[in-house]
Design a protein that fits this description.
CATH class of chain A: Alpha Beta
Radius of gyration of chain A: 15 Å
Enzyme class (chain A): transferase
Family (chain A): Belongs to the anti-sigma-factor family.
Radius of gyration of chain B: 13 Å
Number of helices of chain B: 5
Order of helices and strands of chain B: EEHEHEHHEH
CATH architecture of chain B: 2-Layer Sandwich
CATH superfamily of chain A: Histidine kinase-like ATPase, C-terminal domain
CATH class of chain B: Alpha Beta
Distance between the termini of chain A: 10 Å
GO biological process, one term (chain A): sporulation resulting in formation of a cellular spore
Helix content of chain A: 25-40%
InterPro entries (chain A): Anti-sigma-factor_SerPK (IPR050267), Anti-sigma_F (IPR010194), HATPase_C_sf (IPR036890), HATPase_dom (IPR003594)
Largest sheet of chain B: 5 strands, mixed
Largest interface: A-B, 27 and 23 residues
Catalytic activity (chain A): L-threonyl-[protein] + ATP = O-phospho-L-threonyl-[protein] + ADP + H(+); L-seryl-[protein] + ATP = O-phospho-L-seryl-[protein] + ADP + H(+)
Number of helices of chain A: 4
CATH topology of chain A: Heat Shock Protein 90
Shape of chain A: globular
Oligomer: heterodimer
Mean pLDDT of chain A: 94
Helix content of chain B: 40-55%
Number of domains of chain A: 1
Low-confidence stretches of chain A: none
Shape of chain B: globular
Strand order of the largest sheet of chain B: 1-2-3-4-5
Strand order of the largest sheet of chain A: 1-2-3-5-4
Strand content of chain A: 25-35%
Mean pLDDT of chain B: 95
Low-confidence stretches of chain B: none
Order of helices and strands of chain A: EHHEEHHEE
Distance between the termini of chain B: 35 Å
């Protein structure tokens, strides 16, 4: 079982829900549990929100790319932007750390990603955008037709 | 799905009921409305009723934490009820579970408020 898709959308906050709905639809054939579905929707929301707020400083008209693929039970999601990038990825990942406290950011985005997914890989450097790769294996269930 | 908000007042207690999805896109409007009730209408205590909430991410945590600080500064109390297991994990991760009182249902929350305020 294998599939992939790529969607590019504008850096507008309306598209956060679009990204969540798209990924839920894409992963449906993996027969995820409700919890797995919610985990994935949450981390996609976190990464897309980061791209909008931090990558593009809340400026619309910029590209965010959502790439999803699965092979057998493993779902891979890559969310990339061409924005400002992250100077210190390790610091950005610290729980409760935020570079934008004035926007009431909780600083929990990366912590949630790391807790809800099996693997999180963040590639970023100042001026070169950010790429977040998220991987999760769906728990095997008693599937009827395999 | 968007976020629907309903506000109900009992003396100095404000009940906020959220339905739908609370993300970054919806968080700004909720913050502004909530702050209006706290500052303009001078409501001291707040019950945030979440049984109709289908989705929340860290943007929702930011709004709740921000209001918690304002309510706390005004010597009020913020309680949360009707939390789904998914949303509960976010409150747990963020440490808000240790800061705030939670109730399973709105009725239980109102009873607790009756005792505490």
């Amino acid at each position: 079982m294998k599939n992939r898709m790529t969607l590019t959308f504008d850096s507008r906050s309306e598209n956060e829900s679009l990204a969540r709905v798209t990924v839920s639809g894409f992963m449906a054939p993996l027969d995820p549990t409700m919890e797995e579905m919610m985990d994935v929707k949450t981390v996609v929301s976190e990464a897309v929100t980061n791209a909008i707020i931090h990558g593009y400083d809340s400026e619309d008209g910029k590209d965010i790319e959502l790439h999803c693929a699965y092979e057998n039970d493993e779902l891979v999601i890559v969310i990339s932007d061409n924005g400002s990038g992250i100077e210190d990825v390790e610091m950005a990942k610290e729980p409760l750390y935020t570079s934008k406290p004035e926007l009431e950011r909780s600083g929990m985005g990366f912590t949630i990603m790391e807790n809800f997914m099996d693997h999180v890989l963040v590639t970023s450097s100042p001026g070169n955008g950010t790429r977040v790769e998220l991987r999760k294996k769906m728990v095997a269930k008693d599937r009827v037709c395999h | 799905m968007a976020l629907a908000t309903a506000y109900e007042v009992h003396d100095n207690l404000l009940i906020i009921r959220l339905e739908g999805e609370l993300d970054h896109h919806e968080a700004d409007k909720l913050r502004k409305e909530w702050q209006w009730w706290l500052k303009e209408k001078r409501k001291r205590h707040v019950l945030l009723e979440l049984s109709g909430l289908d989705f929340m991410d860290s943007s929702g945590l930011g709004v709740v934490l921000g209001r918690y600080k304002e309510i706390q500064a005004n010597e009020g109390m913020l309680m949360i009820s009707g939390v789904s297991s998914e949303v509960d994990r976010l409150f747990e991760l963020s440490g808000l579970k240790k800061l705030l009182p939670f109730a399973v249902t709105e009725e239980e929350a109102l009873q607790k408020f009756g005792v505490m305020i």
